[in-house]
Each structure stands twice: as structure tokens, then as C-alpha cells.
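Continuing the series of single-chain predictions for the mutant panel. This is the parent chain; the variants come on the following pages.
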Amino acid sequence: MKIIRTTFCAAHLLLNTSMLLTFFVRRNLRTSFTVYIMCLLFSNIVYAGAEHPFEILFQTYKSSWMWPSLCGFYLYLFWVWCGVPMHIHMLITINRIWAIAMPHTYRKYHTMKMAFVLCGLTTLYVHTVALPLIVLDQWKYAVSVKEKGCTLNFSVALVDDYTTGVQILIFDVPIVVVVLSYPFLLYKQTKRSKRKWLDEMTKSVVNRVQPSTRLSGGAQSGATETAVNKAPQEKAPKKESARPFLVLTLLTTSVFLLWTPNQTYWTVVCFVPPTWDAHAVPIRNIVSAMGAFQPVLDPVLFALSLQSFRTGISRFFRACQGNA
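Parent structure:
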């Protein structure tokens, strides 16, 4: 398990950092939608760089060596910051709901600044809900690290109940929103694509039936027709507009396959006797490995789904090779 955790940590940091650096090198990749991707990558890097080393040390030396303050920081990462990437996943889904269900207001009001603000408010919400759990436990009910390891004091009813609330609000709700929203988004996207295809077919038929209309209006009419024909080319490429939905599809699939079993296990643990978790160590190891693989998969999915990302990454690595 230690080898798997170390491999995940290295891949986690390398892939997410490479993707985030690509955004800084290639400014043309920064859009109001990719702001959420940047925030997700950053939250993944913080989690990988801070939490995974703790896990590796625990599996090597247990947790009796930790100072109480260091144990509090680990619990913060595990119970608070770990929820930030999950909520940004939910924010991406909400963004697509807005873009597909209300495209006019989305184009009018959604900006890069708003995207950054929404990511900041989401992070603030996670801390507002989950951080009091860590403060309460460490300030009033902290257990001896040497005797019981680095863990919350679940023997206190208040801490145990608060933990269940955090599990549901911070870890379960985002998965439910992401997974259950996808059928609606798929229906709206399919309907939108079908309507778009019918409009293009109608225009094509009209142009074939009335070819003379493009030549009978003189210079002004010709200029107008040219402007109309060029208008779609001056806007954002139509193929690019569908790519965020492809990103959402891949992310939703990975969340459903990897995070859902992981968080289902921890939700069950909140409602069963503590002895059950002690007898389910193999299951816990499997679902933990699945959950740890999700942040590793995020940048890979982005690279596979977006042509602009593939081009940017390729140029970035070519520039690094040229400077070497």
C-alpha cells in the first residue's frame, strides 16, 4: 500500500503541476470555464503535496511520532481541504447547468472574475462547514496521539454527530449533485445539438433553393451577405463550445466510478459501530486507492478531451526541451 500511495503522490503532483503551469505559459488557454479547471488543479496540488506524505509516513512509522499541532494540520487536510476539489467538481457541473439551461444569461454575466469569485466562495463554504469540527476536536476533545494515533475523538457524541454532518454535506452532496445532474444535462445538450443541426440544414436548403439572392442585391447586399457568412467564423469555434460538456462527461464518469465507492464506504462508517471499520480494512484500502486515483486522473482527462490543452502541453514541453 505504501508503494501505491507513493506512486499516486508523485503522479498526482507531476500531472497537476504540469497542467497548471501550462495555463501560466499559454495565456490563450485561460477562459471563464477553464478557471474552474485551474482552481481544481491547484486544490489537487495542495492536497497531494500535504496530505499524501502524511499517509506515507503513517504507513511506515504509524502516527505516534506526531506533534499534536501537526496532527491537527493533518486532520484539517483530511476533513476540510479534501472537500475543496469535490466541491469544485460540483461547481463545474453547476456551471454547465447554467450554460446549457440559460445560455443567454450565461454569456452575458459569466466572466473569469466571476469564476474566481465562485471558486473562492466555494472554498470558504467548505471551511465554514468543516473547519469547526477540527477546532472543536483539537481545542476541547483531542485524544493522545501516542495512545490512539492521529484521529478525531469519536467517543464524544458531539464530535461523532458533527463528523456525520460533515461527511454528508462536504463529501456526499457534491457527488450526488454531479451524478444526478448529468442525465438532465445530457438531455439538454442533445436537444440543443439537434436544434443546431436542424438550423444548419435549413440554412443549407435555403441557400441551394435561392442561389440568386446572394447576387441580386448589389455591393451593399453582397457586403451584408459576406458579413452574415463570416459571422460564425468570427465567434468562438463551435467545436470548442461542446468541449466543456465532454470534460463534464469524463469527470462525471470518473467521479461515479472512483469517488462514489470511496465516499459510500465512509458514509456507512458514520452509521455503524466502530468495530465494523476494523474488520473492513481490505475494503477500506481498495476504496481509498480508488479515491486517491481520482485527482491523478483529472489532468489526464483534460488533456485527452481538449485540443487546446494538448497543443499547449506539447508546446510547453518542447520549450522546456529547447531550453535544456
